[in-house]
Every structure is written in structure tokens, then in C-alpha cells.
Amino acid sequence: MDALETRELVYFVAVAEELHFGRAAERLGIAQPPLSRAIQRLERRMEVTLLERTSRAVSLTPAGTVFLAECHKALDAVTAAQRRAQRAGQDVPRLKVAMKPEGDAGLLERILPAYRQDPDAVDVHVEVCGAGEQSRMLRDGRVDLALLHAPHDDLTGFDTEALLTLNQVAVLARGHRLAEHTALALADLDSETFPRFPGDDPVQATGPEVRDIGQLMQLVALGRVVAVVPESVRRHARSDVVCVPVLDAPSSSVLLAWPERTHSRAVAAFVRASTEAAATAPAV
Amino acid sequence: MDALETRELVYFVAVAEELHFGRAAERLGIAQPPLSRAIQRLERRMEVTLLERTSRAVSLTPAGTVFLAECHKALDAVTAAQRRAQRAGQDVPRLKVAMKPEGDAGLLERILPAYRQDPDAVDVHVEVCGAGEQSRMLRDGRVDLALLHAPHDDLTGFDTEALLTLNQVAVLARGHRLAEHTALALADLDSETFPRFPGDDPVQATGPEVRDIGQLMQLVALGRVVAVVPESVRRHARSDVVCVPVLDAPSSSVLLAWPERTHSRAVAAFVRASTEAAATAPAV
DNA sequence: CCCTACCGATACCCTGTAGGTATGGATGCC
DNA sequence: GGCATCCATACCTACAGGGTATCGGTAGGG
């Protein structure tokens, strides 16, 4: 039993996600028949049925469901291998850090100067990406470090260091019935409409999708939604909205994450500088 | 830039480990010239120099060193994908647990009956493997769960649940100068010879390598070595050796580990049963 | 100092396989 | 029942991956 080829995994992922050989083949830029044969050969070599096909529909078997998840992990690991080696081969070493907009709660401007003091410091490039994208970029090796948020982000596969714990505040329109309160409980907000953030589970979606903080503030000011967000967002509150602490909302943490078993001195130095900068940071 | 093929990674690993194209080719079962070309093509595609070759010697560049480690992770992930899917496709679901000999500190005989009570229980197969092999078997999907030991084993990439904390005891020949003591400090053993266990870092090796507990006891009884081991080993002490607690040795934990993001009900039930069995276990 | 043994790279050939086109056969729908 | 849809099969082609022979550079022994 020799190892599966990357190409076979890519092909399977395409079919498993499209549940349609024709569309999958198109997405892969090949014709449908070779794809059908490739999947057949894959199943024969693995001695497992991954897909149930009729001439009308394709569906995943339990083994196929497991295999799809495992393929994603494995393919991420392969591209991470490539990217990390390429990065290590650069003559000018560089550190890339991923964050989402406002995802640093103002910490980065304290971390960067502190890091530059370190003898192991190298150039830092901050990659501002879409919300929820940071962990993917860290997983597949496009960046060396990421600023993530617990409990929102999936931290499996990373080493992490907590930088900051943020209490939650409700953002309300100035005229909202609860705007005059000094503190709230989650139960007070039961009847409200909440926005959906990109990367959220779309199942529990109720309100409109929100892309950035400006848009959020706009919707809040109009009274369309109410948002429960980390207190660091206070810095972006407009004059026509108010922020009220929500005492029983689970607090979120800003944390720095990097791939497990990383031995880079530059990464270690950045982590060191970050924890120190966070420890001396003023209350937000 | 399309993805690297598994075969290329396997080829590179062979060369990087042998540091010799001829031997690597032999190990791979192919001729040397195609291997040379494959590595060249790999380097060209990655646009990174991975190996420094002269006509007399081959050595790894920094990028090559990183890539070797990443290749291991990636290849493990690929074979894990295959194995886990195969396992999920079995009509008779089964749980495989890896442990090294005596690695359960007597816990397993309490865990298994407790697990069988669980509604989600399936057949359990215990794989007794070489010391240090458990984490590898868990990483590449040959088993679903493993009994590991902190801080000895590398836990990165796993979710874990601590089952038991074990204090350390020194095993001494009955006639040893310290045999009459009721407790020791590590400093008392400074001048002693310690055995080397399989999977240990061979750098700090001083004494002879030891394969199993019987052999260890033999060497101790002969006065050749002194061992500091978890107290659970007491159960295997022969009459011509004595065990003395070492108060300042870092205590080791027995813990149950499984791959991150596992969603199997059977695994969850086994973890549940294990923690409960461990909580009600008698002192060793 | 030169000859030889060693080792990776190159040149050249061949075969297996990935991919393409055409078409068959099953199934649901109007 | 005719048709559209969709996966599988049949058959062909091209190229990538593998083999053999050999080159070119380097270290070491006599």
C-alpha cells in the first residue's frame, strides 16, 4: 500500500464538496471522465467506498465524510510545508502576522516597537485579512503568527499565548430603551436582532450580515440591530451609539497563535515581546 | 503553483535523511538518476535550494531542514487521512488504543469495563507497542487513542485528558548505599549511571539502553544502573531491588490523547469512561 | 603526482498513466 | 415516451516518471 498522491486528495475534495462530478471536473480544469476514473482508483486503492452515486445524485458515505475532513488537514499540511520552507529560504528573513481589522485591540502598536528591541528581531509584515481567515492563513503557512480570538476561533493545531481578556459590551442606539442602563445581562437582550459576522455559523443567523465596524455602527445607530462585542470596539463608537457592559456575556480573549513545534527564534522573540507589551498595556 | 505531490515529499525525506542520493534511491526502490532529477524539479518548482551538494557530500540548507520537519508532518497527515477513512468505513466499528508495556499504570483494567457500560461503546483493541511509538501511531491514524506520558511524550497536535499523576521513585539494588533511605533528592543520585530508554534523546545518553522493565530490573539488581521511574513500576519490583521516593523529581502524568477535532462518539465515550475510572482509582 | 574509487548530474530511451473525446446506460421529469 | 441529466466505459494520445549508460568533479592512497 503506497501513499496517496496529493492530486488524488485534491480531486476527491472537489467532488466531495460539489457532490457533482461534472462541476468538480470543471473546477479542477479537467474533463469529467478522468475524474470519475481517478476517484474509482482512489476507492479501489483505499478499499473503502467514499461516495454513493446514482445517475442522479452523489452523496458522501460516513468514511467519505471523515476522509474529506482529513484531506483538508493533510492538504493544508502539504502547502504549509512548501510555504514554510520557501519562507525559511529567503535571504532576508521576515515575519508575517495575520490579523483581522481591529483584531488587535490596539495592542500591535505597543508590540511592534517592543519587538524591534529584541536581538532576534527581523522585519515584520502585518497581513490584515478577512475575519475568520487568520487561522486558515496560519494553518497553511502563509503567515508565521496570527492574532486570534477565543472562544471564537478554532485553536486546534496551534500553540497560543493569551494577551488580553476583553469584557463584552452591548452597542445600542442612543435612543434605545436600554441605553440609559449602566450594565446589562444577556437576558435583557433576548428580544433584539443581532447581526451576523463573516465566518460565523450561518445556521444561527438572524440579522443582516456585517462586514466591518463602520457598517456595524451604522446599523446600530439606525436601530436595526444590537451588537454584543469586545470592549475594545468602544474606540470606534460614534456619538449616536452608546456602549453598555454586559456582565454575564462570556469574555473573549485576544491571543497570539503560531504553528506547533515552531523552533524559529524570530517567532519566539515576537511572542516574548507580545506578552510583555500586553502585560504593561493600559486598560482598554 | 500547483501542490507538491506526496511522492516528491517522500523522495526528499529519503535524501534528507540519508544525505546520500545512492542510498536514498536504494531505500526507495528506484535508481539514482531519476531521484536526482526529482529533487531538482522539486527545488525548481519551490524556487528554494533545499540541499547543498558537492560531488562528495550532501547537506541540508536551513530551508531544507524546515522542509524535512514539515514533510514529516504532512506525510503523517496524508497517511492518517487514509487510515482514518478506512477505519470509518469498516462495517464493524472498532476503537484502537495504543500503549507501551506497563504504560497504563494498571488503569486499563478499570477503564475497559467502565467503557463497555456506555451506550456508545464499540469493540476495543489495545495495541501494545514500543515505548515512544504511541504518539506516532496516533499521529498517522493507526490508532484512535493513546496512553501517553507527560512531560516525556510530545503532545502537540493532540487533545488530551490527564488521568493520573505519578510520583517518581528511584529503583536501587538492595545493597545500594542509598537503599536504606526513606526518601531521596535528585542530587543524591548525581554520581549514578542511568539507563537510556528507547525514544529518549540519544544525546544525553550515559548508560546502557534498556528495552523493557524486566531488563531494567536486572540491570538495577546487578548494580549497573539506578533508575528514576514512575511509582507505578513498583508493582514490578523484584525482591532484590528497592524503591525509594525521589521527592524533587518532576512527577509524570499518564494521559489519554486523541487527534484534535475528533468527532467520534466512540472516542468521546472512551474519554468519559477513562476520566471516571481514573477519578475513582485507588492510589497506586 | 597521478590513478582510482566514489558520487551526483546529464543524455537518451522506454513504458505506464493521466488526460482527452466519443459514447453508453441509468434515472427522473415534462 | 421522449428528453435532459449525469456518471461510467471504451479508446486514443502524450508526457512524466523510471531505467541504463556515461560524464565530470573530488578526495584519498600509493
TrEMBL record, chains A, B:
One of its GO terms (molecular function) is DNA-binding transcription factor activity. InterPro entries: LysR_HTH_N, LysR_subst-bd, WH-like_DNA-bd_sf, WH_DNA-bd_sf. This is DNA-binding transcriptional LysR family regulator. Residues 4-61 form the HTH lysR-type domain. It comes from Haloactinopolyspora alba. Keywords: DNA-binding, Transcription, Transcription regulation. Pfam families: HTH_1 (PF00126), LysR_substrate (PF03466). GO terms for cellular component: protein-DNA complex. It comes from the Bacteria. Belongs to the LysR transcriptional regulatory family. The keyword Membrane does not apply.
